[in-house]
């Protein structure tokens, strides 16, 4: 365990503010229980930062992130900033942090909670027992490839991006996929479009090479369109899915939706030096400020931070167990509520989770 963790707290916009308060409350309790010290330092990001400084990721915020052991991030965006050009939008702040901190690996777990099986769009018998991770490459591929742009050619406009992967980028994410699988069910599915794209043919070749060092783990290759289908037909068969930036963006939303609520899903983005933890869901401006947002994804993101950055897996498990327990006891925020369960606010949900952490 680390004795002290310096955390940059970037709540962002919309419900980001409320759910961040929940996560910080939970971390305070963990701090007392385990004697770990957190130093929280807050900074602006996204729309809030645009309003204040004109920049979705002010220099000061980036500097703070680089001086911290981890970044806790809420959510960014909202209608108010929707009409800004791509490079001025709140999302740009997020993309820039990923690149600047070299957060090349995005870990997105999707787990079906027994208490929430009815929230899934899939039949109970298909979703029950699903426990997978989408490992998305986060700093390369078509999101960042050059050349990119919109220009005029032959008297008309043309838009273009470049999907590009260097061998070293594929190698490091593949290694992490196999490492993660070793601690789980020892299966990696590498997702690409190697029947059409050269960049995918190289992806497949390099992942296969890296696999030579991990022969105790099973490796399968799957085209992305097929993966989109198999995730719906037999999600239980997946353990670790490793893929590039854009395929991972799409597949991870699909995997998230399987389990029924985006409000439950945390994520971690890690690189050699920095780590960044955020819920998968967005800033949900429609419910912001009402005190009804589901804080669980944010709280579970803090749990991933405790495990990966603070080296305190026991505290992380405490939180996961407390979340299981509130759900089993029938407490639900609006997004996961169904008749017969007890509707609670953001604060009530947070306090219940804290109560169960203290009792464990
Ligand atoms: C995500 C989001 C981002 C992405 C957006 C907000 C830039 O969809 O984290 O999955 O495309 O990576
Ligand atoms: Mg996405």
List keywords for this structure.
10-stranded mixed beta sheet; alpha/beta; binds magnesium ion; Isopropylmalate Dehydrogenase; 2 domains; 360 residues
The CATH homologous superfamily name of the largest domain equals Isopropylmalate Dehydrogenase
Strands of the biggest beta sheet: in what spatial order? 2-1-3-12-11-4-5-10-8-9
SSE pattern? EHEHHEHEHEEEHEHEHEHEEHHEEH
Number of domains: 2
DSSP, total strands: 14
Structural class: alpha/beta
Helical proportion, percent range: 40-55%
Number of helices: 12
CATH class division of the largest domain: Alpha Beta
Distance between the termini: 19 Å
Characterize the overall form.
globular
> Which small molecules are bound?
3-isopropylmalic acid, magnesium ion
The description of the largest β-sheet is: 10 strands, mixed
Beta fraction: 15-25%
The CATH topology of the largest domain comes to: Isopropylmalate Dehydrogenase
The unreliable regions are none
CATH second-level architecture of the largest domain:
3-Layer(aba) Sandwich
Radius of gyration: 20 Å
- Overall pLDDT: 96
How would you describe this structure to a colleague?
This protein has about 350 residues and is of the alpha/beta class. The chain folds into two domains: about 190 residues, 3-Layer(aba) Sandwich (Isopropylmalate Dehydrogenase), CATH 3.40.718.10; about 160 residues, Isopropylmalate Dehydrogenase (3-Layer(aba) Sandwich), CATH 3.40.718. Helix content is about 40%, strand content about 20%. It is built from twelve helices and 14 strands. A ten-stranded mixed β-sheet has the order 2-1-3-12-11-4-5-10-8-9, sandwiched between helices. Helix 1 packs across helix 10. The longest helix has 19 residues. It starts with a strand and ends with a helix. The site of magnesium ion has 2 residues, from helix 9.
């Amino acid at each position: 365990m680390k004795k002290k963790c310096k955390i940059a707290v970037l709540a962002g916009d919309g419900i980001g503010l409320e759910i961040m308060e929940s996560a910080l409350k939970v971390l305070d309790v963990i701090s007392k229980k385990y004697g770990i010290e957190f130093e929280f330092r807050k900074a602006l990001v996204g729309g809030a930062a645009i309003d204040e400084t004109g920049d979705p990721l002010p220099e000061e915020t980036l500097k703070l992130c680089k001086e911290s052991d981890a970044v806790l991030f809420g959510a960014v965006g909202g209608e108010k900033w929707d009409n800004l050009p791509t490079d001025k939008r709140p999302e740009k702040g997020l993309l820039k942090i990923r690149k600047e901190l070299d957060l090349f690996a995005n870990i997105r777990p999707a787990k079906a909670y027994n208490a929430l099986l009815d929230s899934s769009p899939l039949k109970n018998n298909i979703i029950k027992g699903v426990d997978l991770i989408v490992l998305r490459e986060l700093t390369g591929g078509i999101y960042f490839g050059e050349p990119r742009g919109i220009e005029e050619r032959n008297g008309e406009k043309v838009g273009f991006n470049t999907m590009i992967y260097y061998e070293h980028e594929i190698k490091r994410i593949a290694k992490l996929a196999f490492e993660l699988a070793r601690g789980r069910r020892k299966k990696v599915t590498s997702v690409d479009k190697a029947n059409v794209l050269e960049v995918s043919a190289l992806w497949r070749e390099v992942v296969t090479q890296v696999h030579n060092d991990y022969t105790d783990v099973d490796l399968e290759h799957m085209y992305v369109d097929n993966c989109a289908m198999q995730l719906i037909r037999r999600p239980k068969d997946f353990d670790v899915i490793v893929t590039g930036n854009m395929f991972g963006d799409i597949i991870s939303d699909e995997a998230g939706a399987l389990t029924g609520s985006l409000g439950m899903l945390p994520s971690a983005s890690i690189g050699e030096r920095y780590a960044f933890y955020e819920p998968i869901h967005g800033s949900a401006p429609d419910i912001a400020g009402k005190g009804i947002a589901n804080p669980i994804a944010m709280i579970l993101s803090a749990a991933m931070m405790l495990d990966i950055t603070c080296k305190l897996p026991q505290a992380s498990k405490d939180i996961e167990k407390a979340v299981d327990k509130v759900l089993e006891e029938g407490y639900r925020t609006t997004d996961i509520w169904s008749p017969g369960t007890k509707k609670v606010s953001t604060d009530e949900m947070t306090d219940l989770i804290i109560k169960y952490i203290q009792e464990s």
